[in-house]
From TrEMBL:
<keyword id="KW-0521">NADP</keyword>
<feature type="domain" description="YjeF N-terminal">
    <location>
        <begin position="10"/>
        <end position="212"/>
    </location>
</feature>
<feature type="binding site">
    <location>
        <position position="427"/>
    </location>
    <ligand>
        <name>(6S)-NADPHX</name>
    </ligand>
</feature>
<keyword id="KW-0547">Nucleotide-binding</keyword>
<dbReference type="GO" id="GO:0005524">
    <property type="term" value="F:ATP binding"/>
</dbReference>
<comment type="similarity">
    <text>Belongs to the NnrE/AIBP family.</text>
</comment>
<dbReference type="InterPro" id="IPR030677">
    <property type="entry name" value="Nnr"/>
</dbReference>
<feature type="binding site">
    <location>
        <position position="257"/>
    </location>
    <ligand>
        <name>(6S)-NADPHX</name>
    </ligand>
</feature>
<feature type="binding site">
    <location>
        <position position="426"/>
    </location>
    <ligand>
        <name>AMP</name>
    </ligand>
</feature>
<dbReference type="GO" id="GO:0046872">
    <property type="term" value="F:metal ion binding"/>
</dbReference>
<feature type="binding site">
    <location>
        <begin position="127"/>
        <end position="133"/>
    </location>
    <ligand>
        <name>(6S)-NADPHX</name>
    </ligand>
</feature>
<dbReference type="Pfam" id="PF03853">
    <property type="entry name" value="YjeF_N"/>
</dbReference>
<dbReference type="InterPro" id="IPR036652">
    <property type="entry name" value="YjeF_N_dom_sf"/>
</dbReference>
<feature type="binding site">
    <location>
        <position position="362"/>
    </location>
    <ligand>
        <name>(6S)-NADPHX</name>
    </ligand>
</feature>
<dbReference type="GO" id="GO:0046496">
    <property type="term" value="P:nicotinamide nucleotide metabolic process"/>
</dbReference>
<feature type="binding site">
    <location>
        <position position="123"/>
    </location>
    <ligand>
        <name>K(+)</name>
    </ligand>
</feature>
<feature type="binding site">
    <location>
        <begin position="397"/>
        <end position="401"/>
    </location>
    <ligand>
        <name>AMP</name>
    </ligand>
</feature>
């Protein structure tokens, strides 16, 4: 997992890194530019029209000048638009790269940009180095960049966006942001989704260990992290080792929620899945998920189950059942959907929730539980305090879902697809996380593997089906995610 540092820490990180590696800051900038260009070439952007690069006076501008030089070597026609009045104001590495710019690359002041002439814009005006409110000229430069209606690719950060805060005054609206070493926190906040566009992370040779010495409780979860979170099973493993889970889900008209959770739990590898459903609705489960068992007795021995997920589709008249469960079951449970709304209506239940349990609210459910928040950072702070006070884990669902752990760490997920914004996806996730808990995973392991693989299955289903991807399609891809990750 990559630690997410503040913008101000980037220059300290750079210094540590270049001293440790015995390289110059110019070489590090070159590595960043090469990483950007490798990604650019992979994307096969058209070279039929010239590329405009807006370059500022700091190191973000230096990156842009190096990128212009490298893209020109690959046959792209680049034109640089300078966003500085005099060369005396340039950072040292920006000046070096200006000197290295081949004379064939034309340079103009930024206000001479004519958007009609160009096929693509690269925004290397401002990065993590902005301080205080944007100056008036900066706003005009940003407006000029935004006047381009084609693809705008921002280097490190959309110019004008601060690395660490929520909100912006003037800011480049990028279609893609290519960021270096670690994603800047602002790029992961949902209120910035429209200006960040697609997020691409470029490795510039700074290791996770180098980031680890900084103090931060934010992390970014990548595909390569997942295998280490998985438990190893062997050829003598039997059905019992893969767990016996119970899903308390579904009610009249909402039995689909129970069916989706149960199927997802099986596809995630549970040995035995039972559904606690209303007696008169059991046929739906027994025909749609024949592998599952149904329980509907008045008194159920909940402790006979390795893990329990509660909430999808149960309805809001199940307060008593939820209270009884919380009083009788003492292992971590997964609480979702209606269970969360019931919790927000009965705050006294909070003290009954078994330690290390997992609450999985979407933004609406989060606000019902914790009140309105003006920004995502405020939401994260509320969640952190709650998790640490109650020794519980909260997953804030959305693009870049955030796993908020009981110890205060907050992990942003990197997998997922916009095709997942449809009914039933949350039910699938509840089934997956409950399944991992039942297989003996810790709450952290179950969350990390469940959340990442849910997003990955969504990406894979989205690649196959595109618009119209169903939650059921995502369930069918879960086994493929294990293969894709090399987890047997
Ligand atoms: N490890 C990494 O991640 C690596 C990072 N690298 C790159 O370095 C970038 C950071 O570079 P940086 O520190 O030079 O700052 P940067 O963003 O160019 O901004 C400075 C400029 O902004 C200006 N300015 C400031 N405030 C302003 C305001 N309110 N309104 C208007 N203008 C304002 C300021 O003007 P001044 O105050 O000096 O007059 C100066 O001109 C980083 O984002 C990444 O791209 C890579 O090269 C290598 C590895
Ligand atoms: K930028």
């Amino acid at each position: 997992m990559i630690k997410i540092l503040s913008g101000a820490e980037v220059s300290i990180l750079d210094k540590h890194h270049i001293q440790g590696k015995g390289i110059s800051s110019h070489q590090l900038m070159e590595k960043a530019a090469e990483g950007f260009v490798d990604w650019f070439l992979e994307k096969r952007f058209s070279s039929s029209k010239p590329i405009a690069l807006f370059c500022g006076a700091g190191n973000n501008g230096g990156d842009g000048l190096a990128i212009a030089r490298l893209l020109t070597k690959h046959g792209f026609q680049c034109v640089v638009f300078t966003c500085f009045a005099d060369e005396g104001s340039l950072s040292e590495d920006c000046r070096i790269n200006l000197g290295l710019l081949p004379s064939a690359i034309r340079k103009f002041p930024w206000n001479e940009f004519d958007s009609e002439e160009f096929g693509l814009v690269i925004d290397a005006y401002l990065g993590v180095g902005i301080k205080g409110p944007l100056r008036e000229e900066a706003k005009s430069i940003i407006d000029k960049i935004n006047s381009f209606k084609g693809i705008k690719v921002s280097v490190d950060l959309p110019s004008g966006l601060s690395a660490d805060y929520s909100g912006f005054d003037h800011c480049v609206h990028a279609e893609v942001t290519v960021t270096f070493a670690f994603p800047k926190l602002a790029l992961l906040l949902p209120e910035h989704a429209k200006v960040t566009g697609e997020l691409v992370l470029v490795d510039i040779g700074i290791s996770e260990e180098e980031l680890e010495v900084f103090h931060s409780s934010y992390y970014y979860l990548l595909k390569k992290d997942i295998p280490a979170f998985h438990k190893k099973f062997h050829r003598f493993s039997h059905k019992g080792d893969f767990g016996k889970v119970l899903l308390i889900a579904g009610s009249r008209g909402k039995m689909g929620a129970a069916a989706l959770s149960a199927k997802a739990a099986f596809r995630t590898g549970s040995g035995l899945v039972s559904c606690q459903v209303p007696l008169e609705e059991r046929i739906i489960i027994q025909t749609s998920v024949p592998e599952a068992m149904c329980v509907f007795e008045d008194s159920i021995d909940w402790m006979a189950f390795d893990a329990i997920g509660v909430g999808p589709g149960i309805g809001l008249d199940q307060g008593e059942l939820l209270e009884k469960l919380l009083r009788e079951y003492d292992r971590p449970i997964v609480m979702d959907a209606d269970a969360l709304t019931l919790l927000s209506r009965n705050p006294s239940f909070l003290d009954l929730i078994p330690k290390e349990s997992i609450l999985t609210p979407h933004l609406g459910e989060f606000e019902r539980l914790f009140g309105k928040c003006r920004t995502h950072l405020e939401r994260l702070e509320k969640a952190r305090r709650f998790c640490m006070n109650y020794k519980l884990n909260v997953l804030i669902k959305g693009a870049n879902s955030v796993i908020c752990l009981a110890d205060g760490r907050q992990i942003f997920n990197s997998s997922g697809s916009h095709f997942m914004a449809t009914a039933g996806m949350g039910d699938v996730l509840t089934g997956m996380i409950t399944s991992f808990l039942g297989q003996g995973y810790s709450s952290e392991q179950a969350l990390v593997c469940g959340v990442y693989q849910h997003g990955l299955a969504g990406e894979m289903a989205g690649d196959m089906k595109g618009r119209g991807t169903l939650a059921s399609d995502v369930i069918e891809m879960i086994p493929e995610t294990f293969k894709r990750l090399g987890v047997s």
